[in-house]
Amino acid sequence: MVRLKVLVQGVILIVLTACLVLLFSFKDHRVTRNASASASLVARLEAPEDVLLREDEPVPLDYQENDLLYRPPLDVALIFTHAKGNLPLQYKLKVAVGSLLRQASAPLRLHLITDEDGFHIASQIINEVQSSNRLDSRYVKLVYVSAEDFIPEIEESVKVLQDYFTTRRHAYYRDALFFFSVHLHRLLPGLEKVILMDIDVKVKGDVAELHSHFNRFSQTNVIGMAYEQSPVYRHLLSLYRRHHPESLLGSPPGEGGFPGYNSGVVLVDIQKLRQSSVIRSYLDKGKLLERSSHYSFQGHLGDQDLYTLIAFDYPDLFYTLPCGWNRQLCDWWKNHGYQTIFDQYFNCTTEFNIIHGNCKTEIPDNL
């Protein structure tokens, strides 16, 4: 009995000893790991900034970056056709997109309406812009929209519009691309709101601020544009104004007139455009003939002529942007019969947020 008792005590002592050994070994291992982790953290904090994070480590975002990255992207469409070998056009895209991205405070989806060659060229230009300006590519997504595939769908409609809003003398505007905006609900069917911009622009303001003007649309507003800043529609309406001297159509805004719209920057509510029976009716040849004849109106500037004609009859369909969101530089009409009144159209006293080098006007570096 005594021997059994001694044996049991011996076994218990061995078990306790083993437990103590394992416990101290575990503590030593944790201390070693903690010391190693601390040393690693110190090494990372003391390391140069460019090697602070390994390539396989996630990049931490501060709260502002995180907020920006997860905002819904804004949709901006650019028409970029006939770009292959066209260096001036490629340079315009570089200026337009570079200035747009530098000023933007929200993620963007850039819908490039072009062909395969144009999309490849545009992608290279945009990548170079991002690299040279150290812009974060996570905030920009490029979307290829095939112009070639779309043109056959609208060919019949475009031919009708070309008869009324282009002339042989202005053959440049006979290209189908100058009527794409009328069909954006078909070209970009998955979008709700989109900003369509010409590429002969320099962006000085935040496109998110421009996009906020959608919130100011009335229930009837479908499209937003700035006024035309030249007397071109005064000239085109000269016969109508002669027979209707009381009309303010074609008169400058300072006189309470309507000078027409410029389509260099267009805000389009896609759903409202799709549902607008009025705009759709103006794509009919008979309707165009009747309304153009009523105003003795023959345009030559593509879609903006169509919008201006519709606005004569239905101004509530349009939201008027401040002039600074499409500050046009073309002064051709100043030296072609309208020098004494040109500044009444051309003056824009608000901040210039988008500079538009229309009629091939060079945009000065200081603007």
What can you tell me about this protein's structure?
44% of the residues lie in helices and 14% in strands. It is globular. It contains 14 helices and 10 strands. The protein has helices spanning 2-46, 63-69, 87-103, 116-132, 147-165, 184-187, 207-211, 232-236, 238-243, 270-275, 277-281, 285-294, 303-313, 342-346, and strands at residues 74-79, 108-114, 140-146, 193-197, 201-203, 223-227, 261-269, 318-321, 327-328, 354-356. The strands form 2 sheets. It has a 7-stranded mixed β-sheet. The chain has a 3-stranded mixed β-sheet with strand order 5-10-9. The longest helix has 45 residues, at 2-46. Helix 3 packs across helix 4 (116-132). It is α/β, with parallel strands linked by helices and 367 residues long.
Name some characteristics of this structure.
10 strands, 14 helices, 7-stranded mixed sheet, alpha/beta, 367 residues, 3-stranded mixed sheet
Short description:
With 367 residues, this protein is α/β, with parallel strands linked by helices.
Rough outline: globular
Rg, alpha carbons: 32 Å
Terminal CA distance reads: 106 Å
| Uncertain runs | 26-59, 169-174
Strand content: 5-15%
Q: Order of strands across the biggest sheet?
A: 3-2-1-4-7-6-8
Number of helices: 14
Could you report the average pLDDT, rounded to the nearest whole number? Answer: 84
SSE order, one letter for each helix or strand: HHEHEHEHHEEHEHHEHHHHEEHE
Structural class: alpha/beta
Helix content: 40-55%
The number of distinct β-strands equals: 10
Major sheet details: 7 strands, mixed
